[in-house]
Design brief:
By secondary structure, the chain is of the alpha/beta class. It is 24% helix and 30% strand. It has helices spanning 4-13, 47-55, 69-76, 89-98, 135-144, 203-212; strands spanning 21-25, 28-33, 59-63, 81-86, 103-105, 116-121, 146-157, 182-189, 192-199, 217-222, 227-232. Helix 1 (4-13) packs parallel to helix 4.
Length: 233
């Protein structure tokens, strides 16, 4: 892994910002991800993210913490015991420099012997599952990180709207994968590229896969563009 997201976060934090991050998926054209967005304050966050932060309680694990915006809000405003975790070494370094007190550099699916009241997965949290077939087992692992009465707060989007319709209103969906939300995701920064697998899940599918992992899944809120926040327990 080149850790391009970590490089971009470090550049922005260290006043070495010269260009934005560009993203592209297997079903969409190139788009811009402003690096500044990763440093947003609570008032700049989407409503679903704000709702998730309001619901976070007890000890919190912020998975895929990025530059630490969610963790800093929980730590400094809600006075919550939060641990920021990211696979990006650069991101974790910036989190520390920004004042996040508890950080973990690593893959959450290798995390053991830890328990939390709230596991937080935001900015399309289902993305870290990568593959549709892997979701039940990965949810079981997240379940193992929960204390009694613990919760997983996760957001995603139903990207069915991105596919073309036929004249009968049906969708033209390619059949080269197990699920239409299973994509390849390419990140570009300063002339380098990094491609990973990324997964978007509609709520009904997430609910079904959660049940397979022994979890109850409830819909907390829906956004304006096929996005939603769910609670698993």
């Amino acid at each position: 892994m080149k850790d391009l997201i970590g490089l971009a976060i470090q550049d922005y934090y260290n006043d070495n910002f010269t260009e934005e991050i560009y993203t592209e998926t297997s079903i969409s054209e190139e788009d811009i991800l402003p690096v500044s967005y990763l440093f947003r304050e609570y008032d700049e966050m989407p409503v679903l993210e704000q709702k998730a932060l309001q619901l976070a309680r007890g000890t919190v694990l912020d998975i895929g913490c990025g530059a630490g915006s969610h963790s800093l809000y929980l730590q400094n405003k809600k006075k919550v015991d939060v641990t920021a975790l990211d696979i990006s070494e650069g991101a974790i370094e910036v989190c520390k420099n920004r004042g996040v007190e508890k950080t973990v550099h690593g893959n959450v699916f290798q995390l053991k012997n830890e328990e939390y009241d709230t596991v937080l997965l935001l900015m399309n949290g289902t993305g870290i599952f990568e593959r549709y077939k892997e979701v039940p087992n990965k949810l079981k692992h997240l379940k193992s990180l929960l204390k009694k009465d613990g919760q997983i707060l996760i957001d995603s989007s139903d990207i069915i709207y991105m596919f073309d319709e036929d004249e009968d209103g049906g969708k033209w969906i390619p059949m080269d994968g197990d699920y239409y939300g299973e994509l390849s995701y390419t990140l570009k920064y300063k002339g380098q590229t990094e491609t990973t697998s990324w997964l978007y899940l509609d709520f009904d599918t997430l609910q079904t896969l959660a049940e397979m992992a022994g979890l109850t899944c409830e819909l907390i809120a829906e956004g304006d563009h096929y996005d939603y926040l769910a609670r698993l327990y």
